[in-house]
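Hi there, hope your week has been kind to you so far. No rush at all, and the record is pasted right below.
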Amino acid sequence: MVQIASDDLDPVVLIGEHLAACRILLVEDDPDQRHLYRLLLTQANYKVIDVPDGEQALLSLESDDEGYGLLLVDLGLPGMRGDVLISSVKAQKRPIKTILMSSHPELRKVAQYCGADASFFKLNITQLSPLVKKLLIEKALVDRMVSGEN
């Protein structure tokens, strides 16, 4: 069993260590919203790669050598819907956190059904950065435990 000192659980330390290596894949078909989310996340010091649909997201995931820490996906994408994309990624057992976003009233149910780690209601824009940070902290902790770091 891996033992982690309480100092190692400091979110600032964890996120600081993993932030440089962490990248976010943003999947949003609306160019204005894609620009807004990219701007919010880059201002919070996240590295953001954005694509307009699920097919391009899968291609980006397949061709990527560095790995993404988080997949932020709009539900109402053209072609492959966001929930289908997240289900596909989860079925591949990728070590990536996922957020399904929409203004759809049943968003939480859809996110739970497809296996998303979290849902983001688009009208609550101020909640995006804290939600991303929370999931990346969780990922950093899991990555440390899996790698056996103390």
User: Anything to note?
Assistant: Helices lie at 11-19, 31-43, 54-63, 82-91, 107-114, 128-147. The domain at 22-147 is CATH 3.40.50.2300 (Rossmann fold). The chain has one domain: 22-147.
